[in-house]
Design goal:
Shape: globular
Number of strands: 5
Helix content: 40-55%
CATH architecture: 3-Layer(aba) Sandwich
Structural class: alpha/beta
CATH class: Alpha Beta
Number of helices: 5
CATH superfamily: Response regulator
Largest sheet: 5 strands, parallel
CATH topology: Rossmann fold
Length: 124
């Protein structure tokens, strides 16, 4: 598992790219996926696994809930912590139901995001 790599799974291109830019500016290697299916394909490709997945819940093709169900079925992928990013009012409850390591409301508070990423991704 790559200790500074973060996968940002978000269907909104602007949000995904801005989040990646912020993470890169703070010393992380960040990559993106537009939906859960794309994220699973990346994770299963054999590339370095991330230390953390930032996951939107509402996406086309494969939503965040389905992604989490698939992730948990894989012994290799299940240990990767997930932080749910959502604008839904019940996002904290949904994150808890999914066994997520945390939840951040959109628009995401930058300080809260960086605190979580620093806590969950140790330096090389």
């Amino acid at each position: 598992m790559h200790t500074r790599r973060i996968l940002v799974v978000e269907d909104d291109t602007d949000i995904r790219e801005a989040t990646i830019d912020i993470l890169v500016d703070h010393g992380f290697e960040a990559v993106g996926a537009a939906n859960g299916r794309e994220a699973l394909d990346q994770l299963r490709s054999g590339v370095d696994l991330p230390c953390l997945i930032l996951l939107d819940l509402m996406m086309p093709v494969m939503d965040g809930r389905t992604f989490c169900e698939e992730q948990k079925r894989s012994p290799e992928l299940a240990p990767i912590p997930v932080i749910v990013l959502s604008a839904r009012t019940d996002s904290a409850r949904q994150a808890a139901e999914l066994g997520a390591a945390g939840c951040l409301d959109k628009p995401v508070n930058l300080d809260a995001l960086l605190r979580l990423t620093q806590r969950l991704c140790v330096a090389d």
